[in-house]
Amino acid sequence: SSLIAANARAGDPTLFLCLQGVLESLDALFERYRYRFRTDELFSEIKYSLEIIQEPLTLAFKVLCEIVFTSNFDFKMGDIIFGDISNVLNVFYSLNWQDLPEFFEDHMAEWMKLFLQFLSYECAAIEGSAEDTDPSCVDKVQAVILDICDLYERKYEEEFRPFLPGLISATWMLLVKRGNAVKYDSVATRGIAFMTTVSKSADYQLFGDPATLQQICEKIVIPNVELRDEDEEQFEDNPMEYVRRDMEGSDAESRRRSAVELVKGLTVHFEGPVTETFSSYVNSLLSQYASNPSSNWKLKDAAIYIVTALGWKYGSQSSGATHTNQLVDIVDFFKSQVAPELSSAAMRPNNLVTPILTADAIKFATMFRNQIPKALYADLLHLCIKLLSSQSIVVHTYAAICIERLLSVKDTVEAGAPSASVKMQRFTKGDLKPMIPALLSSSFALMGPGKPENEYVMKAVLRAIVVAQDAMGPHLSLILQVLRVSLEEACKNPANPRYNHYLFDSLASLVRHLAPINQEYLRVFEDCMFPTFQNILSSDIVEFGPYVLQILSQLIKSRTGDSTTLPAAYSILLAPLLMPTLWERTGYIPGMVQYIQAYVEKKPDAVLANNQLVAILGIFQKLIASKMNDQYGISLLGTCIEVYPLEKIKMYLPDIVKVLILRLQQAKTAKYSQKFMYIMSLMILRYGVDVIIAALDSLQAKLLYTLIEQVWLKDAAAITFPVDRKICAMGSSAIVTSNAFLSEPYSRQVAPLLNVTIALLEGIQVNPTESEHPDDQEDDALNEVGTDSADNAITFSQLAHASKGRFHDPFAKVNAKKFLTDSLTEMN
User: Fold this and answer.
1) Residue 719 and which of 210, 345, 510, 740 are 20 to 30 A apart at CA?
2) Contact at 8 Å (CB) between 675 and 632?
């Protein structure tokens, strides 16, 4: 800083380049302070850093500002000097993220005064032309300053309050002055974000004057919500990116999204005045549109965006609007403005006059699907099905999204008992059945060779199968033919993980809903899909192998009758799965475990006859040694215990118990401890307490006493999954009421173990944050599939409709509380 003060006016560019390197290093070093959890260690490091850097940083900022604001500033040095200022501000932002440093609080006035100067700074020589697409060095500095102001208003509003009016005024003037050129996007979005934060804060009265609200609407919201030429170009040239930005909310830093969030922020404290003010503008925009629709269609686009912002209070992309502004009649707007737009477009889907406006209408219906009454659903779905045939990628993609979201809506209805309720499908199987042929025909026209892999269309097909269930039976051959061809195309280049996931889940859903009601459907499925599945496994298409194993497991489980009805192809596949080399592929492990479990359940005698049980237990031993895969080992062992009686498993029992105990001793984790109690309880319930005590005593005398003392009494209450809690409660009930616990030393544990058992029984209900119904769990799984979770080349991705799930209960017909009372009665 002293070097800058001494030599800056000499115009030595080397000095500023050197400073740039130092500041960039500091920026990279301190950036990690943002978003970190607050810990003593972190704050000690920040304190140490501040002691070294806070004073020089402040001096450097003041000296650099003095250079910029002097009349003899060398504009040729603009990019370098403003780059240094940006780095100073980024360092300042990082150091202030966790808490307000005392030094910066004491010198806040100095920083804020210079912030004000920068927000009103203009210099044509270094700002460039408004036609440029990249922000200038001045724009970058102003954007960081607005980020800092937003941070201070969110976290340090009391200390920041004296400077807020001036900075808000400067921000306002800057936004009006900058206009809607692309190069100013970063300044506009950050400035609007700052105003949005203020609108929700204790300082909201800064916007309380009606004239101020009107100016915000006219000068800030309307200009930034208007469609720009760049948006139209993206709609045509990069439609899938447009969809992701507009429909999925990845445009968090776009002008339109920022303006919408500002409107939402203003309605927090000024719902009535804001609604009245903006509604008058909406009416004006719609009136102008009506006078000349072909020329003024962008005004209706803006009107729909504003109504969306006014009407939406709470909700999410996956669930839609859950709470709305009661002053905005969403249904009336849908009937008067949105539905006519969709009806007109559906009459000529391949010749849309204003496709963006059609997309806006579909999006509005999608976002407010919960508010639209069921009476309008059938017509709305018919319109969306027709719009699937549109040549516009955005329009038919939006139509697919709308169909999928409409079919996912569930209503909460009373269940009969006081305060009891259940979720019921709004648009039912019976409602959907007449539409199935048209829906499949329009959807399948967008799939197949030469067609882009549209994940949203595939998800709509999946949702239709889930809702229609057995009503899809008459269409099974057609569906399988299209999905098989789509899968074979995807095998050539598995580039879209979401699309692939929904494709396989569609197949899984068909098996789930059709196979149990008619085994002929199962034969049709196997005849159509088996060759493709075999090709995937033999060609080692690693992205699809885990999916195929899940569906094959599901096919085995879906077969009724004795084991002789199982085709030989399933038995042939088992042998290679038992080879140790395959188990090095982490992504394959869950699918292979599911396949082995299904086969053991269906053909347990064949496994014994072919001496394959030893190999399966060897796989259990391998999996149990891994902290990543131990739950799969426990699950595999659990299936063997459920299936095989004591006489078949007794010779292996001491070794099984030894493997479980060794892992507990050598690498105990919270997850393994819970799974250990589950599997031990399952063995106790299947084979009896005395048998398990004998197996444990073969390793160490009174080992069960130690396990109860060190594991059960300490960790049982932490078990979270309902079925695990139930099985452990039943296992504890069996232990505490066994003959062994009538004598020393076990009798000393009766009271504490009984307390743990009761605690487990009282906690059997599902955690309130979890879904209690399997269908809801599947809906969550569908909505949460993302690029990372569905990329099974890296990690395994469970198919929602092929999952046995955490709801599998080996003792589903047993009431755990009654089991305890009956055991106590029998003991007495």
Assistant:
1) 740
2) no
